[in-house]
């Protein structure tokens, strides 16, 4: 299994994408809403090995390798390694990905640029995942010190939302800093190369970075900003295919079981994922795992929709996306599947 120069930000329609063959979607946004395929009732057919899904959920892939009893998958899966929401959106647009796991921001960005996709499963995560982290020698010691500084910003990812929330909660306007558009995969090198003064890092990148640069003055700043939604989503065209929709319906309980298994078996998860797949030490893996929170699967999606709306309103208020009703992003045919697959102690919502 595989391991997984600055310019002014053009707010409307900008989407920072990963490197390589991925294409920048800037300027692709249309003033029209995405053309939405009409979806009927969930199919009653069962998936089989003749049903193929291209799946970009690396944690579930790693969990099935570490604990085969979580499977088997009742369909034929091709695993796709994706590095964040922008790559997922590009994969959806190119017809190269059928199902992916991301946070709440990518579906909003996808809708804004005309990519029609729906959320099919949700887990609530109350951990603080994205930590404002400085470059060595930045002179930043408190949140107020970021005024006038350069901050890495990925519009189409959770990191972008969390940094805007963090600025707002500290009484700082995004207009008082320079937001440097970068995909999150480039945040580390941007800090190392002094392209930016601060970036929101998550694990395992945060641990690796501090291990190398903390002695030179790199530091983290306090934050309580959560990125609540961990979700599965799929192109609407995929969901309109009865056999693929049935395969996704069958995948959701396995996703739930895998998440719960990694929570209940931290030592195995550290070894199989953080050490062998992500390349961190066992000690660092233990520290990362201790920062996690127990996954919760909401029994209804009302609070999740409200949370997603708050993110969309924050982004539209800053001019990054158009304002819209996020309820169109949720395929409520799937609303109860994840919670029904979870033991009672894992059911709940924030």
Automatic annotation (TrEMBL):
PANTHER family, alphabetized: ALIPHATIC SULFONATES-BINDING PROTEIN-RELATED, TAURINE-BINDING PERIPLASMIC PROTEIN
Keyword Signal on entry: yes
Predominant localisation class: periplasm
Ranges of residues in domain SsuA/THI5-like: 88-267
Name this protein carries in UniProt: ABC transporter substrate-binding protein
Any Pfam family matching the protein: NMT1
Signal peptide span: 1-31
């Amino acid at each position: 299994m595989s391991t997984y120069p600055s310019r002014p930000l053009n707010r409307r329609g900008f989407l920072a994408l990963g490197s390589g063959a991925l294409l920048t979607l800037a300027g692709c946004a249309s003033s029209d809403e995405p053309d939405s395929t009409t979806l009927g009732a969930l199919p009653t057919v069962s998936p089989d090995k003749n049903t193929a899904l291209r799946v970009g959920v690396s944690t579930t892939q790693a969990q099935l390798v570490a604990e085969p009893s979580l499977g088997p998958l009742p369909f034929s899966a091709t695993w796709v390694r994706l590095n964040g929401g922008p790559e997922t959106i590009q994969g959806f647009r190119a017809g190269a990905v059928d199902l992916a796991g991301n946070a709440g921001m990518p579906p909003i960005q996808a809708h804004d640029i005309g990519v029609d996709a729906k959320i099919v499963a949700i887990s609530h995560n109350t951990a603080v995942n994205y930590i404002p982290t400085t470059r060595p020698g930045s002179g930043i010691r408190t949140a107020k010190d970021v005024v006038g500084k350069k901050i890495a910003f990925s519009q189409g990812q959770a990191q972008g939302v969390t940094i805007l929330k963090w600025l707002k909660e500290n009484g700082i306007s995004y207009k008082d800093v320079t937001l440097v558009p970068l995909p999150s995969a480039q945040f580390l090198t941007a800090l190392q190369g002094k392209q930016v003064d601060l970036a929101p890092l998550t694990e395992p990148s945060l641990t690796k970075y501090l291990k190398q640069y903390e002695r030179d003055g790199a530091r983290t700043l306090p934050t309580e900003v959560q990125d609540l939604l961990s979700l599965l989503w799929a192109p609407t065209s995929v969901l309109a295919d009865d056999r693929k929709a049935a395969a996704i319906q069958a995948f959701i309980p396995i996703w739930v079981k895998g998440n719960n298994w990694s929570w209940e078996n931290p030592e195995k998860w550290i070894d199989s994922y953080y050490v062998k797949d992500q390349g961190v030490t066992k000690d660092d893996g233990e520290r990362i795992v201790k920062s996690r929170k127990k996954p919760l699967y909401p029994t209804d999606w009302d609070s999740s929709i409200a949370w997603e709306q708050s993110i969309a309103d924050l982004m539209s208020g800053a001019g990054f996306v158009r304002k819209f009703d996020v309820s169109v992003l949720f395929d409520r045919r799937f609303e109860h599947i994840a919670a029904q697959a979870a033991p009672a102690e894992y059911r709940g919502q924030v």
